[in-house]
Design a protein that fits this description.
about 650 residues, alpha+beta, 5-stranded mixed beta sheet, elongated
């Protein structure tokens, strides 16, 4: 009797099944319009990431053709909150890294998936109605797995008898004879070994289940439940995710050949893994196609066309992309609004600002740290929109195997990066101060609160004497900056920083004027967003908006502007930051890298080269680069010889 109650419980769970649906995180939607800056490399990268396939013929949904700088793209369609797009043909011509012409005038590609919020069992699944699955696939499953599905009541006794004879002859269990209903039950019973007791359990449960669900409901549950493969540690369950994983397509747009491959994989997702066992998977697909022809699921013309088709697997899995560091930022920002249980089970859709191509180039730059500098140092890089403050890319390490996101977590002294804020505070707080004012770049000796003597030195161990405030900032003069800081007063400067959102401990040491404060690269990016946007925003946002599974917007990003700074003062600091890249400590960017201007930025170094920084921007992008050792030991690099080198290479690539 307890055994019956257990079997009854198992079938009830299948009837009442409510799957946890992981929330999906998307990159930004690529908008295409005439005059847009876009290189062939960037567009091809995006199409490959989305799983589009090249073709020499007229493209079908999910395909593109490229010839003589002209692209013909047939999109797949995608549901956005403001627009539900159907597949359409886009024709565009690229010339000199720009879209020269395009039809229609404005078009959008669907956003790539960059991550998910999984439950603890790491199952990836998105339910689908049976009516949305192609009829050939529904009939084809029955033709291959259970030809008597419509006529039995959960168990095919003939199939069991046939399998029993083969098992007896083999002396072991070599064939199952399971129906689709039994296979569905098997997923719930979680037996690891083939045995007669297991088969008996499955048979009884399947018979009971058929009294509780219709044939259509059983098929729908099967398509949503069945295991289709493994993506790293994530289990791919259900036909929706299988279609996305192998072909980067919605189920309803799978070709006959693609449908047959998926049905074939069901027999053994590891054994027939098409990414690893191409020939084996191809043979299995053709066996399925032969079965479909034999049972009338497809005709001879469809059969021949499908057998002549290549596997057509998505290229997106083969691209060396790494979105984990960006996902760390998404997780940190979204948990302020949504619970982890909501994210893991309610199928939310999180739309971010991440640009996959810029992320790719940022990751590539970080990977080259040891080539351009040395093996001892690590790096962290962030890129955001100069005006919007939207986070476009993050790299937390030079290593692909590192799990420590330095961009988000590593608090390091910022050194001379603080100087633009000292001079901005001077403009805001001292009525008679301007960047034309004279400062004293001379040796200075101060008594600190602990009765010690502090004597700041310049990086070149020289003093310039009387110097304009602009030159003091451009050439990063420590002594002149401390002279200005003393005029402002330390307490007033701390209050100024706190109004900008920095959590400054009540520091009584004047070294704060020279950057004796620890910030993460992400916090530095926020800080310089103030200059890049001319005061328009104070926050770097990864998330644009979040929708529920029905596409209703639940939350939108908000730009926070809490300061009351004078725009003219920010503009004056930016003029000096431009001169940093022309004649100051960042002049390598225009002289060695020959980057087009105008550029703006600031180098930063700490004692013994323990931290090398460069933060800079142009009209489009703001980027922060940090270089240093995890053990905080000395390096051979200043801001201009370390971090600036990575920054220059990154912007050359962009």
């Amino acid at each position: 009797m307890p055994w019956y109650f257990y079997i009854n419980y198992i079938t009830d769970t299948i009837v009442q099944d409510r799957w946890d649906i992981p929330s999906v995180v998307y990159a930004r939607t690529l908008e295409l319009y005439q005059g847009q800056q876009l290189s062939p490399e960037a567009l091809t990268f995006e199409l490959d990431l989305l799983g589009y396939q090249t073709t020499a013929a007229s493209p079908k949904p999910g395909q593109y053709k490229f010839q003589d700088n002209e692209y013909w793209i047939q999109t797949k369609g995608f549901d956005l909150p403001d627009e539900s797009t159907q597949p359409q043909i886009i024709k565009l011509t690229l010339n000199q890294q720009k879209i020269q012409s395009i039809t229609p005038q404005l078009a959008r590609l669907e956003p790539p998936i960059i991550g998910r919020f999984f439950t603890t069992d790491f199952e990836n699944r998105l339910p689908i109605k049976l009516s949305a699955i192609p009829e050939t696939m529904v009939k084809g499953l029955q033709a291959v797995e259970d030809r008597g599905f419509k006529n039995h009541h959960g168990v095919s006794w003939f199939g069991i008898l046939r399998a029993a004879v083969k098992n007896l002859l083999a002396g072991e269990v070599v064939q199952g004879g399971s129906t689709i209903t039994q296979q569905l039950v098997k997923n719930k019973l979680h037996y690891n070994q083939a045995s007669y007791l297991r088969k008996l359990h499955e048979a009884l449960a399947a018979t009971l289940l058929e009294s509780k669900l219709s044939k259509a409901e059983i098929l729908e549950s099967y398509f949503n439940e069945v295991y289709w493969g493994q993506d790293g540690k994530v289990a791919v369950h259900g036909v929706v995710e299988a279609a996305q994983y192998y072909f980067a397509k919605p189920v309803e747009r799978l070709s006959i050949a693609e449908q047959a491959l998926l049905i074939g994989i069901v027999k053994g997702p590891s054994w027939y893994n098409p990414y690893r066992q191409t020939k084996r998977a191809l043979l299995r697909r053709d066996v399925v196609l032969n079965s479909w022809l034999e049972t009338g699921v497809i005709d001879k013309t469809q059969h021949q066309a499908a057998k002549n088709s290549a596997l057509g697997l998505s290229k997106s899995r083969q691209l060396k992309t790494d979105f984990d560091d960006y996902m760390d930022v998404v997780k940190a920002q979204i948990k302020q609004q949504f619970s982890l249980s909501d994210l893991r089970s309610n199928g939310l859709r999180v739309f971010t600002a991440m640009d996959p191509f810029i992320q790719y180039k940022t990751t590539q730059t970080a990977r080259m740290t040891s080539d351009w500098l040395n093996d001892e140092v690590e790096s962290a890089i962030l890129v955001s929109g100069a005006q919007s403050g939207e986070l476009l890319a993050v790299s937390g390490s030079k290593s692909a195997t590192s799990h420590y996101n330095r961009a988000l977590l590593a608090k390091r002294q910022i050194g001379s990066l603080i100087k633009p804020l000292v001079y901005l505070a001077g403009l805001e707080l001292l009525p008679d101060f301007s960047l034309d004012s004279t400062l004293n770049d001379v040796p200075i000796s101060l008594k600190t609160a602990d009765n010690k003597t502090w004597q700041p030195n310049n990086w070149d161990r020289k003093s310039m004497g009387a110097v304009s405030a602009e030159d003091a900032l451009v050439y990063s003069r420590n002594q002149a900056t401390v002279d200005l800081g003393l005029r402002i007063k330390l307490s007033r400067f701390i209050g100024f920083l706190e109004k900008l959102g920095l959590q400054v401990q009540r520091n009584t040491h004047p070294s704060l004027f020279l950057g004796a404060i620890e910030l993460t690269p992400f916090e530095v990016q926020n800080l310089f967003g103030l200059f890049a946007s001319r005061g328009a925003n104070q926050s770097i946002n990864a998330i644009r908006y979040v929708t529920d599974k029905n596409n209703k917007i639940l939350s939108r990003a908000k730009q926070m502007t809490e300061h009351s700074l004078t725009t003219a003062h920010i503009d004056r600091i930016n003029q000096a930051l431009n001169q940093v890249t022309v004649r100051g400590t960042g002049r390598k960017l225009s002289q060695t890298f020959q980057l087009p201007g105008p550029l703006f930025g600031k180098t930063g170094s700490t004692n013994q080269g323990k931290d090398s920084w460069y933060v800079g921007f142009n009209h489009a992008y703001l980027a922060t680069v940090w270089v240093g050792r995890d053990d905080n030991q000395a390096t051979a690099y200043t801001g201009s010889s370390g971090a600036l080198i990575l920054w220059g290479h990154l912007f050359n690539n962009l």
